[in-house]
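Annual report, structural modelling task.

Input specification for the acetamide complex:
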Amino acid sequence: MTTLTALRFCATATLALAISGLSATAQQFQNHLMPQPAKISIGSGGLALDSTFAVEVPGVSDARLTDAIDRAVRRIEMDTGLRHAGRGEVGKTKLVVKVDRPSAPVQSLEEDESYALVVTPAGAEIDAATEVGAMHGLETLIQLVQPNGASYFIPAVTINDTPRFRWRGLMVDCARHFEPVAVIKRTINGMAAVKLNVFHWHLTEDQGFRIQSHVYPALTGKSSDGLFYTQQDAKEIVAYARARGIRVVPEFEMPGHSTAWLFAYPSLASGSNPDGVRREFGISDYAIDPTREATYTFIDRFLTEMATVFPDSYVHIGGDEAPAPDWKTNPRILAFKKAHNLKDNDALQAWFNTRILKIVARLHKHMMGWDEVLTPGLPKDVVVQSWRGEASLSKGAKLGYKGVLSAPYYLDAMKPASVHYLADPLPSTSDLTPDQRALILGGEVCMWGEHIFPGTIDSRIWPRTAAIAERFWSPENVRDVDDMYHRLIPISVELESLGLTHIQSEDAALRELTGTENIDALRTFASVVEPVSFSERSETQRTSQLTALDRLIDAVRPDPPARHWFEAAVKRLLADPKGDSADRALLAAWFTTLSDAVPAARQQILASPCLAEASTRADQLLMLTAMGQQSLQYLAKDEKAAPGWKAKQNHALDEIRKPSALVRFAVLPTFSDLVQAVPE
Ligand code: ACM
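The model returned the following structure:
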C-alpha cells in the first residue's frame, strides 16, 4: 500500500510538472491549492513528513471535529506512505487544531467558515472560529503536501482564508436518473475537498419521486420504479454531509415538473391526469392544482414530514417551467382566477407560491425557487435561483430578493472548465449598489440528470466543479486560466482518491464497449474528443429515461486534459513560430502518437455496435494530425503554404466541425489556430 500510494502521488506531481513545464526543486513551494486561499504568504523550508501525526485539539472538541481530523490525517498518511498512528506508532509531526466555539446543531448560512493555517518546520496549526472552518483548513493542509525528493513535506506558509460567497452549492438531479447513496457520498467527499457547502438535492421530477414518505406512501410506491431514498438513507446523507461541513437543501418540484406527484395522487392534478411517470424529457403540461384547499393540506403534511428528515432552514420548491394549460381551460380554475382577480397563470402561480411560503414559514424555514418564482408580489424572504441568465439575478437583487447564480454553471452544456470559471456571480462591473450586492448569496453548479447514470455522473461533475468552487470561494481577481488548469490536475487526482471515478470511468466504459482490456489505441483517440452539449444531443438523439446511455458520448469526458494542454503549447509555439522550441518537438510527437493510434482504434470502433457510428471521427483525426504536422513544418521554415493548402484545410475543418456521432473534437479550435498561423 505504501509504495502504491506514494507512486500514485509521484505520478500526479510529475504529470502536473510536465504539463506546466516546471521542474521540481526540493522544498520549493508548488501552489496546487484549489480553491486559492484569500491570503497566503510563503515561508522558508517546511514541515517534514517523516512520522505520523501528534494531534492536539486545545479548543472546542467533539466527535465531528475529531472524526474530521482523523480522516484528514489518514488521507495525508495514505498519500505519503506513512504508517498509521494507532498501530504502535508514536506520532511526532505536530498538528494543532484549535476551534473557538461549538457549532450550531444545524449549519446555517451564517456559519463562520474562515480559518488560519500556519505551517513551520516545527509543526502545523489551524485556528478557526468553528469546526467547519477547521475542516476547510484541513483540506488546505492536505493539498499542501508535496514530494521532496525521497519523502514528503508541507511547505512553510501562513494562510488566512475566508470564502467570498456564503452559498457555494452543487445541485444534483437524482430524479430523472436515480443515483445510489454511494454516489451521493462520494460526491459529498468531492464537494468538501473543494470547500463547497450546499448539496442541493433535486428529489422529484416528472420522471420519478425519489424520497420516501410514510404519510403519502404512493409517491414512491407508484412513482419511483422502486428507485428511491428511504428516510433512513436521506438522514444518513444529511449526517454524512454535516460531518463534512455541508448543508443539504432538498428540492420538491411544484407546481410543474410534477407528473410523479400526480400519478401517485391524481386528486392533486389540475384536470388532466398522467397515466404513468413521464419517460420522455422536456417540459410537461401536467401541474398541481393551486385552487383546491386539499392541495395545501397535502403539501403541508408532506413538507411537515420532510422537515423531520431535512433539518436545513431552506427548502427548495422548484417552481420552474410550469405552462399548466389546464389553468387556462379548466372552468373551475378559471372561476377561481376570476374570483381572486388573478389575471394569468403567472399570477395564479404567485398565489400558489404565497400559500406554500406560509407552510414553509410555519416550519420555521426559508423558501427557495427557480427564476420563475420571481413574480410581482413575491414575498421578500424567498431566495431566487437564477438559471435563465445573469440578468435575472441582478433584476432580483434590484427588487430586494436574495439570489444564487446557476445560469453559467450548467455542467450539461459540456463547456470547458475555463468558461464556467470566468463566469462570476458578482463581477466588479456589476451595477448593483452595496446593499444589493449583499443580496447575492453565491452560486450553484447544476448537474441535471437526463443523460447521466452512476457510470458517468462523476466525469460530468469533476474536475470542472473544482474550478467553479474556486470562483465561489476565492477573491474575484483569481482568474488566471492557465494557472487554474495547472492546479486542476492534482486536485482531480486527489478527488479520485476520495472515491470519485471521473478519470477511470472513461477507460471502464471503453473496456465495456469493446469487451477487451486492450484499449490503448482507443483511449488515445478518446483523449481528444468530448461529449456534445445536452441540447445538441437532444436535437440529434431522441432520448428518454429508458434510453441506454452506452455510446461513445457516454464514455468520453468533457474538457479532456489534452484540450488545454494543446491550446497552451500552441500558444507558446505561435509566440515564436521559428524558434528552436521544445513545444514543436512535443507537438509533432503527440500528433504522431494520435495518428498511430487511429488504425487500431478504428478497427475496434467498427467492431462495436455502440461505437461504429464514430468511425468517421477516427478518420477525421488522421486529417487533423496531418494538417497539424504540415502546419508545424511550414511554421518552422517560415515558409508560405502551397497555393490552395489553407483553403483545403479550412474546408476540412468545416467538415469536421459538423455534428457526427454525438462527440466533437475538443482540440479542433487549436488545430484551426495552427492552420491560420501558417503564412500564405
Ligand atoms: C431548469 O433548468 N429548468 C431549472
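The chain has a mean pLDDT of 94.
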